[in-house]
Amino acid sequence: MTTTKKPAFIAYAVTGEGKQAFWTRIGSAWPHQHGEGFSIELNALPVNGRIVLMTPKAEDSTEGAEVAR
């Protein structure tokens, strides 16, 4: 999927809990044109941990970056 529109959400793989959690950006999500649902593009699929969708922030512009949240 190729799009020039900014994503509505950034997908992160998260392992651990609280201040010890490790966040890795793994993809993005865009709303469907008809308004129901989202298209999700993942560059990686974690085998453990969880996937969290967050609204984008200015510091989220680095593709594939590890982020402290």
What does this 3D model show about the protein?
- With 69 residues, the chain is mainly beta.
- The protein has strands at 9-15, 22-31, 38-42, 50-54, 66-67.
- The protein has one domain (9-67).
- The protein contains no helices and five strands.
- The radius of gyration is 12 Å and the shape is elongated.
- The relative contact order is 0.34.
- The model has no long low-confidence stretch (mean pLDDT 85).
CA radius of gyration: 12 Å
How many runs of DSSP E, i.e. beta strands? 5
* End-to-end distance: 28 Å
- The structural class is mainly beta
Order of SSEs, N→C? Answer: EEEEE
Helix content: under 10%
Query: What is the 3D shape?
Result: elongated
Proportion of β residues? 35-45%
Q: How many structural domains does the protein architecture include?
A: 1
The helix count comes to 0
Which regions contain 5 or more consecutive residues with pLDDT less than 50?
Answer: none
